């Protein structure tokens, strides 16, 4: 055998020996099939992980002529503010609403303007609106430019372009020409620059007012309407109003505000103002609070009834609404009804009022639901009224922001 053949034979034998000595390769483990998934289980899991869409936001400022000739509309607006808010809250999805107020007269009157910033606390809006009284005037032009200018420049409008921003300018006299920084046309253009729609409501038939009102409405893509001098608002009585007014009044007594004496007095006065609402306004207030509570996550079976105590101001706490805060309140900031009681008696008193309030709120919620059902079949339409015009403007503009009515 030659050397080449011998080398080949030795190499082949060595390779065979190595392969026979090597351990057998283990078979890969079987792949375990995933458990079966129900047809809708995956989509449910995705829905649970998906964050809730943010609520649309609507900011509305009423710029109101408060001279003597506007007394009828002003009193009507006070009666209808809850109704207007309740109407806006009917949007789908329910919007987060803020309302601001600017009153204007003219140079030489008791004041030229008064303003209250945007707020989502409707009871605060109502309390501020109550401070407006009609007076002064007597000459035709009013300082509309300053009223509009302060609404555009001095209130805390959102800078977010996705927030609907609207002004309702309401009056019966044209802008006065004043040698100051409040030129009407300048502030009309600034409203447009800030993406604020100005809807105008002319009360009465003054031609100069119509010209000015149409100018700013057209410039900002707003609406122009004419209504009667009084505002044309009609109270809508329902079979549920009297009972709702009684419940609303009873709820106002189920409060125990903390804080210094002056803070407690301010909150008690505010609650009393809610208790004295006329039947329709009391009903609309309960209806609005019910819609707001549902939009904030309280809808569905077993959900709590809406809290109807006014939001405490001045750093106070309503212990009936927040009984867990009782232990942390110092004696000097306790409401008078609790100061003379022992610790145990205080706790018992707060619990008693909280239970009574809960029962009243459940009753109010049920009555409000029945009232809404009645109104859906019996509500009269009056398209030339102030509140009807406000809702018409809101509905038209809200479509652009994904809110349907």
UniProtKB/TrEMBL annotation:
<dbReference type="InterPro" id="IPR056861">
    <property type="entry name" value="HMCN1-like_VWA"/>
</dbReference>
<keyword id="KW-0964">Secreted</keyword>
<dbReference type="Pfam" id="PF25106">
    <property type="entry name" value="VWA_4"/>
</dbReference>
<feature type="coiled-coil region">
    <location>
        <begin position="350"/>
        <end position="377"/>
    </location>
</feature>
<feature type="region of interest" description="Disordered">
    <location>
        <begin position="32"/>
        <end position="53"/>
    </location>
</feature>
<dbReference type="InterPro" id="IPR052969">
    <property type="entry name" value="Thr-specific_kinase-like"/>
</dbReference>
<dbReference type="InterPro" id="IPR002035">
    <property type="entry name" value="VWF_A"/>
</dbReference>
<protein>
    <recommendedName>
        <fullName>VWFA domain-containing protein</fullName>
    </recommendedName>
</protein>
<feature type="domain" description="VWFA">
    <location>
        <begin position="59"/>
        <end position="251"/>
    </location>
</feature>
<dbReference type="InterPro" id="IPR036465">
    <property type="entry name" value="vWFA_dom_sf"/>
</dbReference>
<dbReference type="GO" id="GO:0005737">
    <property type="term" value="C:cytoplasm"/>
</dbReference>
<dbReference type="GO" id="GO:0004674">
    <property type="term" value="F:protein serine/threonine kinase activity"/>
</dbReference>
<keyword id="KW-0175">Coiled coil</keyword>
<keyword id="KW-0732">Signal</keyword>
<feature type="signal peptide">
    <location>
        <begin position="1"/>
        <end position="26"/>
    </location>
</feature>
């Amino acid at each position: 055998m030659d050397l080449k053949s011998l080398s080949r034979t030795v190499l082949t034998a060595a390779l065979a020996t190595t392969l026979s000595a090597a351990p057998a390769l283990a078979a890969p483990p079987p792949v375990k099939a995933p458990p079966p998934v129900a047809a809708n289980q995956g989509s449910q899991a995705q829905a649970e992980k998906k964050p809730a869409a943010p609520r649309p936001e609507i900011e509305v400022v009423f710029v109101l002529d408060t001279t003597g000739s506007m007394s009828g509309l002003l009193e009507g607006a006070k009666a209808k503010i809850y109704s207007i808010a309740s109407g806006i809250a009917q949007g789908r999805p329910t919007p987060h609403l803020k309302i601001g107020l600017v009153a204007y007269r003219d140079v030489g009157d008791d004041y030229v303007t008064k303003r209250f910033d945007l707020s989502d606390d409707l009871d605060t809006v109502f309390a501020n609106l109550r401070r407006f009284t009609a007076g002064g005037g007597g000459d035709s032009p009013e300082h509309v430019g300053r009223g509009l200018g302060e609404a555009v420049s001095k209130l805390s409008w959102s800078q977010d372009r996705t927030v609907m921003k609207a002004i309702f300018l309401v009056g019966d006299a044209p802008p006065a020409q004043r040698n100051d920084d409040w030129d009407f046309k300048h502030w009309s253009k600034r409203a447009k620059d800030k993406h604020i729609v100005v809807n105008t409501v002319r009360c009465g038939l003054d031609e100069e007012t119509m010209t000015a009102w149409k100018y700013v409405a057209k410039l900002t893509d707003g609406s122009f309407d004419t209504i009667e001098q009084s505002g044309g608002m009609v109270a809508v009585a329902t079979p549920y109003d009297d009972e709702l007014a009684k419940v609303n009044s009873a709820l106002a007594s189920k409060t125990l505000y903390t804080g210094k004496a002056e803070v407690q007095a301010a909150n008690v006065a505010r609650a009393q103002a809610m208790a004295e609402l006329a039947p329709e306004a009391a009903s609309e207030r309960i209806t609005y609070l019910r819609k707001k509570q549902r939009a904030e996550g309280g809808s569905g079976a077993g959900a709590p009834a809406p809290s109807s105590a006014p939001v405490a101001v001045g750093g106070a706490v309503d212990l009936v609404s927040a009984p867990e805060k009782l232990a942390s309140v110092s004696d000097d900031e306790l409401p008078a009804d609790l100061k003379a009681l022992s610790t145990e008696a205080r706790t018992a008193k707060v619990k008693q009022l909280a239970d009574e309030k809960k029962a009243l709120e459940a009753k109010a919620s049920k009555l409000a639901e029945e009232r809404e059902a009645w109104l859906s079949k019996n509500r009269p339409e009056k398209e030339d009224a102030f509140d009807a015009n406000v809702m018409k403007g809101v509905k038209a503009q809200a479509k652009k922001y994904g809110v349907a009515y």
